[in-house]
Design goal:
This protein has 275 residues and is an all-alpha fold. It is built from twelve helices and three strands. The radius of gyration is 23 Å and the shape is globular. The N and C termini lie far apart (81 Å).
């Protein structure tokens, strides 16, 4: 008896000797030169082509998350390239692996936090700012009571305003895509001080998560889009490391200023040689 040929269904890419197909279309005839990379990335995950407005918001998110200077992800990529210049992929991977709860991963964490709050409303969403503020206040109070941080609040550099936040909200508003995630996130920005006792900015990673969720993209995939954006920034960081290296200086500055601390001492500042 002949064994049946195994079949592995996919809605993404297939190829044969004469043709490459992607998303059910001819790659060379239908997509190359006609579809932008950001548009394609959206399409590959959502399984639908974004509208022009959705594509504008999506690409604004990618631009917002591409690079933010000498972040830990950029430093990791540069130092890995310093150590293994023969492994560009290793340097890129090192930077991407740093996308977690403090950097880049906030995009997904914020959207998941907002999704949980919106799910609790059982679909009965507020209709005005007062209603959104009430929901936001309840959400922040519950987070505080549970000893949890509110993802998307605060930034290590932008202490008053993250400049990306109002711009992305404005683009979403222009395109008619300022949905419940962004509205709740904005409301959290208005009311959190009542609970936390201090005012924090809504950061760019958080607003990007809210905007992506309002586009209908799966919340559990949003960290991937942040990493997609940062991959471009890391490639730029590595290219600059080749042109104007700082990796060796960073390494030597730390290594040559390392001070031994007796592990039994409670205050490292009293170590011999410390100022």
């Amino acid at each position: 008896m002949t064994e049946p040929t195994p079949r592995f269904p996919t809605s993404l890419g297939t190829s044969d000797a004469d043709q490459i197909r992607l998303l059910g279309m001819d790659l060379t005839a239908d997509l190359m030169g006609k579809v932008g990379f950001g548009e394609l990335a959206f399409w590959l995950v959502a399984m639908r082509r974004p509208t022009p407005g959705e594509n504008r918001v999506f690409e604004a998110v990618l631009v917002a998350l591409a690079d933010h200077g000498f972040t830990p992800t950029a430093i990791a990529a540069r130092l890995t390239y310093l150590s293994a210049p023969d492994s560009l992929q290793g340097a890129l991977a090192a930077g991407l692996l740093g996308g977690g709860s403090r950097f880049l991963g906030v995009t997904e964490d914020c959207a998941a936090f907002l999704q949980a709050a919106l799910t609790d409303t059982a679909g009965d969403l507020p209709t005005d700012d007062a209603g959104w503020d009430a929901l936001a206040l309840q959400t922040v109070l519950q987070a505080r009571a549970g000893g949890r941080f509110v993802p998307g609040l605060g930034h290590p550099v932008h202490k008053v305003l993250d400049p990306r936040t109002p711009v992305l909200i404005g683009i979403a508003e222009q395109e008619g895509l300022r949905g419940p995630y962004l509205k709740l996130f904005e409301a959290i920005g208005r009311v959190h001080e009542q609970v936390l006792g201090r005012r924090l900015p809504l950061n760019g990673a958080g607003v990007c998560g809210a905007a992506l969720a309002d586009l209908g993209l799966p919340v559990e995939m949003l960290r991937g889009f942040a990493l997609l954006a940062r991959a471009a920034g890391l490639l730029g960081q590595i290219a600059e490391e080749r042109r104007r290296p700082i990796g060796m200086d960073a390494y030597l500055n730390i290594d040559r200023n390392a001070v031994y601390v007796d592990p039994t001492m409670s205050d490292p500042g009293t170590a011999p040689g410390s100022a």
